[in-house]
Design goal:
By secondary structure, the protein is of the alpha/beta class. 45% of the residues lie in helices and 11% in strands. A 5-stranded mixed sheet has the order 2-7-6-3-4, sandwiched between helices. The longest helix has 16 residues.
Length: 233
């Protein structure tokens, strides 16, 4: 089901990266969120489910309480998204997330790359290294590239970095040696494990409420209604 970005064969520095990772592992998977349907399917879904305005949101049904989520200096209101570059559901959820942020511009987005499974840890290093370089805006194009390639290669990564004018020497130095990158990977893994966040993408509202996949959350309006409900708590 999953594909791994394998860099060790032609990027020797990545051997050290993988060897130095010592995070606890938890078997988790991509979990498909309910996403807005389109055309006739959307109309059919609306006939079968209650309008967003009438949903009675319930704890442990539509959301659950979580704690010890590092907001990374974000102030309420904010969303935390746990994701994996290689997760097809995360890739498909990206435009939904973008629309949520457009409709609720007051929200700050804090992205955290999942690192609880060993085959995700190299991708987590890529994300946090780009973030440390002030290049988090490359998250979307890297998601798009991963969606296109399905299985990344060292050449794909090198070409991506070159096409976006990323200083590769600096990038690999940060990925290999940065304690900040390691700290963020451990923090993400700890938060997901301690709060039993079993799949990605996962959205947490104000660091306190994890939105749960549910048939009621089947449209953009339902997403927004649940977010608004949790922001008001």
């Amino acid at each position: 089901m999953f594909t791994n970005i394998t860099l060790v064969s032609s990027l020797p520095k990545m051997v050290k990266l993988l060897a130095s990772v010592c995070l606890c592992c938890l078997l988790i998977a991509c979990s498909e969120p309910a996403t807005p349907a389109d055309s006739g399917a959307q109309a059919k879904a609306q006939q079968q489910t209650a309008p967003a305005a009438t949903i009675q949101f319930q704890q442990d049904v539509h959301y659950k309480l979580v704690d010890n989520i590092d907001a990374e200096q974000a102030k309420p209101p904010y969303l935390v998204e746990y994701f994996w570059f290689g997760c097809q559901h995360c890739q498909r959820f990206e435009p939904v997330l973008e629309t949520i942020l457009l409709r609720r511009p007051e929200l700050t987005l804090v992205r955290k790359h999942a690192a609880v499974a060993r085959h995700w840890q190299t991708d987590a290093r890529i994300f946090y290294s780009l973030q440390q370089m002030g290049l988090e805006h490359l998250t979307k194009p890297f998601l798009e590239l991963y969606s296109e390639k399905k299985q990344m290669t060292p050449v794909d990564l090198q070409q991506f970095l070159s096409s976006h004018q990323v200083d590769q020497a600096k990038f690999f130095d940060i990925a290999e040696n940065s304690e900040q990158v390691m700290t963020k990977m451990r923090q993400s893994a700890s938060e997901m494990q301690n709060n039993e966040i079993g799949g990605v993408p996962a959205l947490v509202v104000n660091g306190r409420y994890l939105m749960l996949p549910h048939a009621d959350i089947n449209s953009l309006e339902a997403y927004l209604a649940l977010i608004d409900h949790l922001l008001a708590k």
